[in-house]
Amino acid sequence: MVMLDKDNFSPEVLEAEGYILVDYYGDGCVPCQALMPDIEELAKKYEGAVKFCKLNTSKARRTAISQRVLGLPTITLYKDGAKIGEVIKDDCTRDSIDAMIARHVG
User: Fold this and answer.
1) Does a cis peptide bond (omega within 30 degrees of 0) precede residue 73?
2) Is residue 95 very low, low, confident or very high in pLDDT (cuts 50, 70, 90)?
3) How confident is the model at residue 29 (pLDDT cuts 50, 70, 90)?
4) Which residues, including other chains, have CB under 8 Å from residue 37's CB and lie 6 or more apart?
5) For the chain, which domains are there?
């Protein structure tokens, strides 16, 4: 799992090739904390196909806003730097995130 910040977000996500999933979370976000074990399991499931990353929006607000992340949790899937899928707030469940990845990655 790659930890993102405002300095490495662009090279790791927007300029990178392939599939990249970004878990946008915040320090005080209880649903975000509850989702972390599921994200880690999905990272193992899709190892080699999708690069999993995390961005703490409490420490990188401008970066999150630039990606139109307005609520937490937000799980976004990118391909070659372009946003291709997103699951937000109450829809952020292991099954819905898995379905989004499977729909794009196969």
Assistant:
1) yes
2) very high
3) very high
4) none
5) 2-89 (3.40.30.10)
Q: For residue 77, which of 16, 32, 33, 7 has the smallest C-alpha distance?
A: 16
CA dist., res. 101 & res. 47, Å (int): 12
Beta-bridged to residue 57, according to DSSP, are: none
Residues annotated catalytic, as ranges: 29, 32
Supply 3's token pair. 């930890």
How many residues can be counted in the chain?
Answer: 106
Residue with tokens 């976004």: 76
**Nearest 5°: phi and psi at 38?**
-65, -40
**Does 106 have pLDDT greater than 80?**
no
Note if the bond before 11 is cis, omega within 30 degrees: no
